[in-house]
C-alpha cells in the first residue's frame, strides 16, 4: 500500500465493484499526505493510515490541504531514520481501518532497530505499535539475571549513577557560579 | 539499547509488560532501577491481593502472588545438598547473600523462566525471612504476606507483617497429633487458617486452645461422626468434611448460634458428609427455621474466603436458600441450605427486616 515518490503505485483504495445501493452519500476520495525522515525519501500515505499516529492526525486534521499542497509540503521528521520511518509507514498501511491484533510478530529483532523504532513510534504517538514494541523490548530480558539485564539495557551500576550525579551537581554549581558572576558584571 | 534514553512513559510501558518475577530481578540491577520499578508499578502492586510463602513442599517451597484466584510465581526454590553449580548468581537480599538461577517451569506456557533460590536446610528459614523483608520493602505493606507451613518442618518466621496458615498433616497417632497440634498452636501467633486432615482434632481439643481463635479452620476427618464441638470457635469461617454426623450436635450448634451464646464472629460454615444417610433435613425441623415464600427468590450469600489455596475458589459457595434463622440477641439472619450431603450456613450482616427486603 505504501509508495515512495521514487517508487510505485497504488495508494488508492480498491474501486467498489458494484454501485452502492443508495446514492445519498457520494464517496469522498481518499486524501493523501507526504512524510519524510532523515534520508529525505518521501512516503505517500493515506489519511486513513495516518490516523494511527495521534501526532500526524492532529497536524493534518485542520489543514484541508489539496493533493498538490500536500505533495508540496511533506511533513519532515528529521529525527527519524529513513528505514525506521518506512517501517512505521508500512505498519500504518497494513493496519489501516483494521482492528489491531493482540500480537505483532513482524517487529525488528535487532536491538538497535527496535530501540529506534520505539523512539519514533513514541514521538509519532502511535499507541498500539508502541505497546507491541514495548512488549518486544520487555521480552528481551525475560528470565535473565540482573547482570544480563544490565548488559542488555545498558543500565549503569550504583557507582556509575553516583558518579554521574556528582558530576551533574558539579556542573550545576559551576553554571550557577557563572551566572552569578555574569549578573555581578552586568550590575557594574 | 539504553533504557534510560527512553522517556519515562515508555520505560513504564516496558515495565508494565514484564512479569512480576522479572521485575523482582530487575530491582537488583541498581538502586535507581529499583526506584523506577517501584514508582512506575504502584497501581499494579496495589492490585495484588496476597503474596504467599508456600512452605508446604519442604524441598521446593515457592513464593507466589495471588490476584483474585490467579497465581503468578515470583520465586521458586530448591534444597541443595551439594556445591552450587556455576550457573548460579548471587544477590544481596536484605543483607543476606543468596544464590539464584533462572529456571524454566515446564507447565507454564512458553517455558517462562523464573528465579530459583538455592538453599541448605540449615539456613532455609533465614533465607526466606530475608526474601520476605525484601518483598515487604519492594511491594509495600498494603499487601498481605501469608506463610503456609506444615507441622513437618514448622517454624514461626521472625518477620514483620505476616499471617500464618498451618496445614497439619496426618503423621502420627491421634494422641501424638493432638499433642503436636497443641504445642504448635500455643507457641504461634493467632493463625489465619488451620487445616487438619484425617484425624479427630476438635473432639478432644482443650477449650482454651488458640485453635479456636484462628480466623478460619478446615477440618477433614474420617472418624465416624463430626463432633460439632465448635463451642469455643471465635473465628469467621469453618469448613468440615467427615464421614457422618450426629443430628443432635448440629442442633446444638445452631441453637447456640440462634441464642447468641456462641459463634458471634461466624460468617460461614460448611459441613459436608461422605455418608449419604444422614437426615440433614431433620435439623431444620428441630431448630425451627423460618421460610421465605417459595414463589420468591432469596438473596445469594457468598463471601471472599478468609484463606484459600492456589487452585481453589476464592469465595465461599453461594447459598441461595428459602430457609433462615434469626439470632435473638441482635436480630441478625443466617441462611441455611441443605443440599444432598452438605449443610451450608451463611450469616448476613443484616437484620431480619433488611434481609427480607432483599427477597424478590
UniProtKB/TrEMBL annotation, chain A:
A Pfam family recorded for this sequence: Skp1
Amino acid composition bias (Basic and acidic residues), ranges on this chain: 165-177
Listed transmembrane segments: none
Region described as Disordered: spans on this chain: 1-25, 160-188
Highest rank taxon of the organism: Eukaryota
SKP1 component dimerisation domain sequence ranges: 127-170
Residues covered by the SKP1 component POZ domain: 38-96
Designated name of the protein: Skp1-related protein
Native source organism of the sequence: Caenorhabditis nigoni
Gene behind this protein: Cnig_chr_III.g8742
From TrEMBL, chain B:
PROSITE patterns: FBOX (PS50181)
All residue ranges annotated as the F-box domain in the record: 1-48
Cited Pfam families: F-box
The protein's name in its UniProt record: F-box domain-containing protein
Organism: Caenorhabditis nigoni
Amino acid at each position: 500500500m505504501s509508495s515512495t515518490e521514487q517508487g510505485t503505485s497504488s495508494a488508492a483504495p480498491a474501486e467498489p465493484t458494484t454501485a452502492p445501493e443508495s446514492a445519498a452519500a457520494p464517496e469522498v476520495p481518499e486524501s493523501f499526505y507526504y512524510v519524510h525522515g532523515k534520508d529525505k525519501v518521501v512516503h505517500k500515505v493515506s489519511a486513513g493510515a495516518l490516523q494511527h499516529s495521534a501526532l500526524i492526525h492532529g497536524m493534518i486534521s485542520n489543514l484541508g490541504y489539496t493533493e498538490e499542497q500536500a505533495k508540496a509540503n511533506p511533513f519532515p521528521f528529521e529525527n527519524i531514520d529513513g528505514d525506521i520511518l518506512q517501517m512505521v509507514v508500512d505498519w500504518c498501511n497494513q493496519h489501516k481501518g483494521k482492528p489491531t491484533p493482540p500480537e505483532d510478530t513482524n517487529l525488528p529483532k535487532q536491538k538497535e532497530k527496535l530501540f529506534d523504532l520505539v523512539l519514533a513510534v513514541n514521538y509519532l504517538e502511535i499507541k498500539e505499535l508502541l505497546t507491541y514494541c514495548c512488549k518486544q523490548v520487555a521480552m528481551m530480558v525475560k528470565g535473565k539475571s540482573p547482570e544480563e539485564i544490565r548488559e542488555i539495557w545498558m543500565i549503569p551500576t550504583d557507582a556509575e549513577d553516583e558518579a554521574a550525579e556528582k558530576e551533574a551537581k558539579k556542573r550545576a554549581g559551576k553554571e550557577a557560579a557563572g551566572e552569578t558572576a555574569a549578573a555581578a558584571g552586568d550590575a557594574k | 539499547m539504553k533504557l534510560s534514553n527512553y522517556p519515562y512513559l515508555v520505560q513504564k510501558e516496558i515495565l508494565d509488560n514484564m512479569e512480576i518475577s522479572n521485575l523482582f530481578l530487575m530491582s537488583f540491577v541498581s538502586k535507581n532501577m529499583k526506584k523506577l520499578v517501584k514508582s512506575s508499578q504502584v497501581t499494579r502492586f496495589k492490585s495484588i491481593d496476597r503474596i504467599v510463602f508456600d512452605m508446604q513442599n519442604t524441598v521446593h517451597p515457592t513464593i507466589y502472588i495471588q490476584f483474585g484466584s490467579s497465581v503468578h510465581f515470583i520465586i521458586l526454590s530448591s534444597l541443595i545438598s551439594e556445591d552450587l553449580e556455576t550457573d548460579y548468581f548471587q544477590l544481596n537480599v536484605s543483607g543476606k547473600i543468596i544464590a539464584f538461577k533462572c529456571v524454566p517451569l515446564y507447565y507454564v506456557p512458553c517455558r517462562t523462566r523464573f528465579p530459583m533460590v538455592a538453599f541448605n536446610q540449615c539456613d532455609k528459614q533465614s533465607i526466606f525471612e530475608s526474601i520476605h523483608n525484601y518483598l515487604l520493602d519492594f511491594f509495600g505493606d498494603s499487601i498481605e504476606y501469608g506463610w503456609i507451613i506444615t507441622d513437618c518442618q514448622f517454624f514461626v518466621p521472625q518477620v514483620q507483617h505476616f499471617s500464618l496458615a498451618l496445614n497439619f498433616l496426618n503423621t502420627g497417632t491421634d494422641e501424638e497429633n493432638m499433642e503436636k497440634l497443641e504445642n504448635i498452636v500455643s507457641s504461634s501467633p493467632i493463625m489465619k487458617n488451620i487445616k487438619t486432615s484425617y484425624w479427630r482434632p476438635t473432639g478432644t481439643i482443650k477449650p482454651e486452645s488458640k485453635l479456636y481463635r484462628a480466623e478460619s479452620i478446615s477440618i477433614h476427618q474420617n472418624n465416624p461422626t463430626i463432633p460439632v464441638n465448635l463451642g469455643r470457635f471465635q473465628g469467621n469461617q469453618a469448613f468440615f468434611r467427615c464421614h457422618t454426623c450426629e443430628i443432635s450436635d448440629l442442633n446444638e450448634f445452631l441453637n447456640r448460634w440462634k441464642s447468641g451464646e456462641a459463634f458471634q464472629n461466624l460468617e460461614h460454615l460448611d459441613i459436608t458428609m461422605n455418608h449419604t444417610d444422614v437426615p440433614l433435613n431433620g435439623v431444620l425441623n428441630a431448630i425451627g427455621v423460618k421460610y421465605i415464600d417459595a414463589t420468591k427468590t432469596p438473596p445469594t450469600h457468598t463471601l471472599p474466603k478468609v484463606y484459600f489455596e492456589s487452585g481453589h475458589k476464592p469465595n465461599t459457595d453461594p447459598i441461595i436458600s428459602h430457609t433462615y434463622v434469626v439470632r435473638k440477641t441482635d436480630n441478625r439472619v443466617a441462611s441455611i441450605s441443605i443440599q444432598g450431603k452438605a449443610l451450608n450456613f451463611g450469616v448476613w450482616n443484616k437484620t431480619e427486616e433488611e434481609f427480607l427486603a432483599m427477597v424478590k
